[in-house]
Amino acid sequence: MSTWPALRVDDWTETRETLHRWTQIVGKIRLAQAPMLNHWWQVTLYVTPRGLSTSSMPVGDRTFEIEFDFCAHQLRITVEDGEHREIALEPKSVAAFYTEVVDALAALNLDVKIWPVPVEIEHATPFDQDTEHASYDPVAAQLFWRQLVQVDRVLTRFRSGFAGKVSPVHFFWGAMDMAVTRFSGRLAPRHPGGAPNCGDWVMVEGYSHELASCGFWPGGGEEGAFYSYAYPEPDGYGAAPVQPAEAFYSADFRQFLLPYEAVRTAPDPDAAALAFLQSTYDAAADLGHWDRAALDYTPVEGARPA
Question: What share of the chain is helix, strand, coil (3-state, %, to 5)?
Answer without folding.
Answer: 35, 25, 40
